[in-house]
Design a protein that fits this description.
The protein is mostly helical and about 90 residues long. The protein is built from five helices and no strands. The protein has a domain of about 50 residues.
């Protein structure tokens, strides 16, 4: 995860300099990204349970909710995949 932290830092700086706000993580996603880079296993549990809750426990799905949801940052998604791969490969 230490090597991927340098790659993530370069991607964050590059996206920021180019003004690509859709690639940058939200503050909550940045917090999750830091936890993933620290290889905290509990963050995987929290991500899985929040995903399950968003799928099954959403009472009403209307168009106003879809505008408030944020797409997962590609930087965060890649870091999660690297952490999962490292756990499985071990």
């Amino acid at each position: 995860m230490a090597f991927s932290a340098y790659i993530n830092a370069a991607e964050l700086l590059g996206a920021s300099e180019r003004g690509e706000q859709d690639l940058l993580p939200t503050p909550h996603q940045m917090s999750t990204l830091l936890r993933v880079l620290n290889a905290e296993l509990m963050v995987l549990w929290e991500l899985a349970t929040s995903r399950i809750k968003s799928v099954f426990w959403r009472a009403e799905k209307d168009s106003s909710d879809s505008t408030t949801l944020h797409q997962t940052s590609p930087i965060l998604g890649t870091s999660i995949m690297i952490l999962l791969f490292g756990i499985v490969a071990r």
